Amino acid sequence: MASPSLTKTAPAVRSPAAQKPKGERTRDRILDFAYDSVIRKGFAATSIEELVEAAGITKSGFFYHFKDKTDLARQLIARYTSENASFLDDMAERARELSDDPLHSFLIFLKLYAEAMEDIPDSHPGCFVATVTFQDQSFDREMRRLTVDSVIDWRERFVGWLEEIAAVYPPRGKLAMVDLADSILAFTYGGMTLAKALDDNSAISRQAMMFRETVRLYFQPD
Question: Are residues 45 and 115 in the same domain?
Fold first, then answer.
């Protein structure tokens, strides 16, 4: 299938700072600094003091926006969940607009996803949920539950689409649709590891295109 002309899709863009009240802009700035620090060196090593200094606020200013460091982590996860949902929804909507066929639209989605993943392994919202997962002992039970919920949401988004494809294009093998859906998460996080280890920012994009070909061969008739 020849791919239609695609407009490169970037990760969800936050509202321009000028459109938000000052307090909300300050809160967002703290979350930005916290996100970068957690990704770079971990949550336990990220201190309130450094965030206060980076944001140019007082410590009381920090506690105006966050009850404590745990509340900061919860709000980071909440923002990740929202941004990730928008990131995926925008691409899915674009793909569905370009094709009514469930398989072809899914292949378009994976192409858009691969393009969006070029050169942004550190800014993908999935980075944070991976960090929380790997640093499990640094977070409380609620944080772990929120992380699990975000992963399940990711899975369920794709299971439905893949089941829709299977109803039109009988698959060639016996893979469970949930396992195929989980592969998207697996190659994304695995691609992040490759990108870091090999200093190759195209790793996620290349893995996405490999998965796209796998899906095409698995479902498309001879």
Answer: no
Instruction: Please tell me the distance from the alpha carbon of residue 20 to that of residue 124, in angstroms, as a whole number.
Output: 23
Instruction: Say how far apart CA 160 and CA 182 lie, in whole Å.
Output: 12
Q: Are residues 89 and 197 in the same domain?
A: yes
Whole-structure pTM over 0.70, yes or no? yes
Do the domain assignments include residue 74? no
| Number of domains, the chain | 2
CB 4 within 8 A of CB 118: no
- Residue-range definition of the domain harbouring residue 198: 79-219
Whether residue 125 contacts residue 207, with contact meaning beta carbons closer than 8 Å, is answered with: no
Mean pLDDT of the chain: 82
pLDDT band at residue 187 under the 50/70/90 scheme: confident
Contacts of 62 (CB under 8 A, 6+ apart): 30, 48, 51, 52, 55
The answer to whether 25 and 12 are in contact (CB under 8 A) is: no
pLDDT value of position 135: 60
Nearby residues of 3 by Cβ (< 8 Å), 6 or more positions away: 107, 108, 111
Angstrom distance (rounded) from CA 8 to CA 18: 26
| 185 within 8 A of 154, measured Cβ to Cβ | yes
Question: Helix crossing, 69-98 with 102-116: angle to 10°?
Answer: 130
pLDDT, mean of residues 50-55: 93
